[in-house]
Amino acid sequence: MLESIRARISDSVAGLFAHGDRPLEDTARFPGDRGLCGPGSVSWKVIGDVSAFLGGIRALLIQSAHPEVVAGVEDHSRYREDPLGRLNRTSYFVTTSTFGAMPEVESAVDRVRSAHQGVVGVSSRDRTYSASEPELAAWVHNTLTDSFLVAYRKFGLGLTAEQADRFVSEQTRVGEMLDADPLPGTAPELGEWVQSHPALAPSPGMRSAVAFLRRPPIPTPQRWGYRVLMQGAVATIPPEVRRVLEVEAKPGARRAAAALVRGLRWAMRNSPAWKASLERCGEPYDPKKFRRFTEPPR
């Protein structure tokens, strides 16, 4: 009965990420390729954990505080019409760049570069933007890195200060491939860069994005859990950025999110991409610690 409950929870959540290409589907074609991070990296531990779900929500919230970045999303993205598709594309890139063999990493980076071509315009405060600008690429990349790190440190299994710095350093390699600049080198520097960024300001696009993230059109069975994770994400955002976003966490949000993350970790175990990467590298592992891939809908 416990395994049945475990499977239902795992399938329900993982199904949200099954609306598109599956990452690392052909990774076995590159035996011995350690990718950007490799076995023993902090990145595999952090992004392979279920706390990354909360980190992803946090990153999307914080990213919307930058008027030029959110204008690019509002003007050029179909996230309202296809929210699960966009979720899958973001998840695909993060998973592949972290766990993939180098040919897979390079292909994922090329996808992002191609998607950013033509993403240009003028923001609500009359500033021009281009998704290819190093500064805007840095905002997106650095907020992702910071959010995954914060989520794992608050709701994961713990990291030392040295491990946190290693995670930032490992993820910097991804940012360099995207031509992002600047790329802070340590966890404290990264956190300070995000919370004190001078370009942040409220905007109509930000308010629209935050409203969407509060109540995205996801299936009813996942809606309650999403709201708990959303509130947990808000609770970890620095006060300076929360003021820009015009959001506040509800009392008890961190405790509720921590309890839910623990339950999800029991049900879902670690990412199957981590398992596939260990197999590719010929590393031993305990199969009981990993969940299976969810098949994309036909």
Task: Give an overview of the whole structure.
Helix 1 packs across helix 13 (253-268) and helix 11 (220-235) packs across helix 13. The chain has helices at 2-14, 42-47, 51-63, 67-76, 83-99, 102-116, 134-155, 161-177, 187-195, 204-214, 220-235, 239-245, 253-268, 272-281, and strands spanning 120-122, 128-130. Strand 1 (120-122) and strand 2 (128-130) form a beta hairpin. The two termini are 28 Å apart. A two-stranded antiparallel ribbon has the order 1-2. By secondary structure, the protein is mainly α. Helices cover 61% and strands 2% of the residues. The model has no long low-confidence stretch (mean pLDDT 90). It is built from 14 helices and two strands.
Defining key terms:
298 residues, mainly alpha, two-stranded antiparallel sheet, 14 helices, globular
Summarize the structure.
61% of the residues lie in helices and 2% in strands. The chain is built from 14 helices and 2 strands. The protein has a two-stranded antiparallel sheet with strand order 1-2.
Helical fraction equals 55-70%
Integer-rounded radius of gyration: 18 Å
Classify the oligomer. single chain
Distance between the termini: 28 Å
Strand content: under 5%
Q: Based on DSSP secondary structure assignment, what is the total number of beta strands?
A: 2
* Unreliable stretches: none
Average pLDDT figure: 90
What is the makeup of the main sheet?
A: 2 strands, antiparallel
Structural class: mainly alpha
What is the element string, with H for helices and E for strands? HHHHHHEEHHHHHHHH
Sheet with most strands: strand arrangement: 1-2
**Count of helical regions:** 14
Shape: globular
